[in-house]
Write a structure and sequence with these properties.
single chain; alpha/beta; Rossmann fold; 2 domains; six-stranded parallel β-sheet; 18 helices; about 45% helix
Amino acid sequence: MPDPHVMILAGEASGDAHAAEFVEQLKQQRPDIQFSGMGSKAMTGSGVEVFYDSSVIAVVGLVEVLRHWGEIRKAMAIVKQHLEQTRPQLLVLVDYPEFNLKMARHAQGLGIKVLFYISPQVWAWRPHRIHKIGRLVDHMAVLFKFEKQYYERANIPVSFVGHPLVGKVKPSTEANTMRSELGLASGDRVIGLFPGSRRSEIDNLLPLMLETVREMRNKDAQLRFLLPVASGLDFEQISNLCADSNIDLCHNNENIYDLIGCCDAIVSCSGTVTLEIALLQVPMCVVYRVSWLTYQILNRLVKIPHIGLVNIVSNKGIVREFIQGDATAEKVSRELFELIENDSYRKQVKAGLNQVRENLGDENGASNMAQLVLTMLEK
């Protein structure tokens, strides 16, 4: 009997990282499983045979997707071809729902079992999608406790595996040690700039953050600014964009949690990184900008009051959000100064961040996901 084959499709950096984590867990239990898929550096490093590099299609926003539609169609064709040629025992889809649900339909037609990991945000917008999802997948694996009830009500097989970040988000060194390595003094006030891992996020958010740097330096020239560059981005290109801003750029690699721990406050994009920052108890604010057309469409579709994951998970406004036209350098810089200078406000924000962990499950998210994959292979 041939070795079991699992294909994994991850369309962006966070999904690539989550996939790599459960693959490493699976390899410890079942080294005979063969893995292939669409992903990037993390999946490749975990031993997955990556046949398409997803970093070229890691975009956010409706208009941005249209601009990259040629590449996305090419990726779909390549994935379909591999599904038809290899016929894996299980297809694991990681986030990236619009693309991955199309691949689920194709896999279903080939008789391939489908496990969807990291639920589409049916609780935020287009809730009717849940019935379509139920027809296309065999099982749903969710990261947040509150998500499970949505699928149970729709009679869709679902498991709450917990968020893998809970066990992973730990600094490897003391903050002062890391600061010293970066040339930062222990007494320096450091602001982290986290514009995201997608090219479209850099285009939309980095100019705002650089403008915020200038605004804050006008009031305190001694402030230091730290910008981790995600592995899927062009470090040299971002370095050129920041050339006149006197910012400390770092490769966003295995010491990302040490970098977060160096910061006194952070301005961040709205995604998964806000959970990482929350788990490390660093006060933050969230910024969100997309193209005008994308925002007009999403503003009519989204049905929840918050846009940052850290606030969504907690179902309350723990940290301030600056969205679209409200995201100005003046407002963001004012909030960051509040976070580093107002002790009572800083303590209030940190107390809210402490509640986030309770909604993310135990420290075994990746191993819980690995066990679910094994269960589906054995069925």
